[in-house]
Fold each of these.
Amino acid sequence: GDSVTQMEGPVTLSEEAFLTINCTYTATGYPSLFWYVQYPGEGLQLLLKATKADDKGSNKGFEATYRKETTSFHLEKGSVQVSDSAVYFCALSDRKGAQKLVFGQGTRLTINP
Amino acid sequence: NAGVTQTPKFRILKIGQSMTLQCTQDMNHNYMYWYRQDPGMGLKLIYYSVGAGITDKGEVPNGYNVSRSTTEDFPLRLELAAPSQTSVYFCASSYGQGWVNTEAFFGQGTRLTVV
């Protein structure tokens, strides 16, 4: 079945550092790809998405590019802030049927001032 | 706009007890989902529904039941609670039509402990 593998955490960085969280996927079809973020005590929120190969999703300074050739969707940000501390989940969804999400295990990110 | 609302936020159950986790959404979404999140793991799909009266099993359905009598509500029932069901439960909803793939909106979660 479909699966998502994320870079293991936790990740700790200093403010203004460059961030990369790796994500690779296995899917039989042509999925849509997502990054969700979970702030402490809250539910998941969509951070960005890409629906086809070479698409770049972006939001709040975060970016990820759908790479079909390497089956990857790595999350990047050029300069992180303390407020970016959260758990980040990579996920995929088959675009037909019920659009069920398959999640990676999550990466806890802590940014120190 | 309330979005997806889950109740309760926290609950402690004894082994063998039953309970229902409530979920309601006010966005007129046709798709609804229940996921569980175990420590250090991603979310796993328990059950989902593509519309009122239609439900189906996800990856980890054992020990749970659902119903979808209205578009808005999608309760999750635990009949005989077991320690393995200690987890955080998330309800989500989205709109789907053909190949259109829309954002899933999540509730704030229910933290359940079975002792």
Amino acid sequence: AQKITQTQPGMFVQEKEAVTLDCTYDTSDQSYGLFWYKQPSSGEMIFLIYQGSYDEQNATEGRYSLNFQKARKSANLVISASQLGDSAMYFCAMSRMNRDDKIIFGKGTRLHILP
Amino acid sequence: EPEVTQTPSHQVTQMGQEVILRCVPISNHLYFYWYRQILGQKVEFLVSFYNNEISEKSEIFDDQFSVERPDGSNFTLKIRSTKLEDSAMYFCASSGFLRGGVKQPQHFGDGTRLSIL
């Protein structure tokens, strides 16, 4: 079975600082994908970044990067130069790379950016 | 950019009543999903749907739930006799494949907040 662990229920970070949100995962599958989603207070789920288990390079999308350490089974999200609008709940998630497999989510980390 | 559309954004229903949540997936996507998020908790998988049939369902998806793709564009979740514990945010998602057969990440709709009274 797959499992996602996010150990930081909440974080407070000063605006413009970089922030790292921790995520570890457990799976027996060889082929899988890792995701990060942002959920603002309005409730929608916004896809941020994706990392495939066979990707050798860490994924980057603008200010977001995913620090993928396969041997340690970790997939931390790094947000550079944080902004007030980054305040939200962040979910780490994974799925097998079958054609239609479900996404398993972690419990989330609530990030507060301080002015 | 194409997006998944869910209606209504908020549904208030009396316990025991039937409710239908609607979703319009991204037009060229083939795989459809429903997830649920009880207030303050993590997002949980309910069901996946492909080629007009359920691919997988979770323990939550019991006989009171059903899904349907009634036409070429809509994907619905029906809850037959709602309970108080069905109150949650319900997310629809869809995915497809990029060129070369690479699976796309699932794109989520904005959700329907279901409140059972």
